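Our consortium's second objective concerns turning raw sequence data into structural hypotheses that experimental partners can test. To show how far this objective has progressed, the report includes one record in full. It was chosen at random from the queue rather than selected for favorable results. The single chain below, 289 residues long, was entered without modification.
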Amino acid sequence: MSLGVKLKSILGYYREQITLVMDVMFSTYYILKNEYIQIRDLLNSEDYKKSYTEYAKIINQLENSADGTGIYLSKQHHEMLEKHREMRRNIPKSEHLMNMTLVYLMALFEGFNKKFFQTLLINKPEQMKNRKKKINYEKLVEFDSIDKLHKYLAEEITNKLGYKDIDKFKNFLSEQYTINLDKEFENWEALRDNYYRRNIIVHNNGRISELCIKKLNISPDLLNSKPIMNIDYLTGASNNLKSYMDFIFITIKVKFKLDTSVRRFAPFPPNFDKPMVVKRGKDEIFNDD
């Protein structure tokens, strides 16, 4: 399989994963939304309002009673309280779903970068030449083939990419491949926003941090506030990721003049001038039809 085909298959896999994550998010979101609507309609019904009024009176009487006084709640009251709890849990579920989706999407961003550039380096080992990097003899003799050494070096480089923030990763692409994301990729700022939004979800309970303010150049007044997270934002994030992956693939394909065509070998056409012979066990059957 050619390098171009390998990289194209990596692109296809991660694009499919992004689509899958978004499909799961949409399906789950609409299940939660339907649950919310059902509970909301129930709480707004006349029967519920009547039961709630009775419940409120009982609670009021209890608060004004002597210490140690107990009350009996009917099955209907218990069901009503459970619906209240479901309503309170429903909204945090939706928020958590949105946050998890963005975290997963950005994990795919990092996974794509690692797999894509690791494959590129293994197949283009000359790209790993660096006078500043050294490998000692003790480590070198561990490898019984040059291919295993190339694989080790490629993994060393790409594993470190996971520890770089998106701006340092941009510098890596600029230095290694003269790819300038900030100038050549039109969704660069939106992708940075997605990346640092993911970081505050993971590291700061979803609240805007000082680092986020500095990186995204937003108002200091937004410190510790929670930015809006909804379906539109996640749809934009998924599109940013797919656009980025397409951009990287096309740029590398052009830069290295990669062939992404797949050769398919068709069988030779049958000779219609001769009868076709079909073998069945030890017998031969001639078909002249």
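The partners drew two points from this record. The radius of gyration is 31 Å. The longest strand covers residues 276-280. Both points have been shared with the crystallography group to help prioritize constructs.
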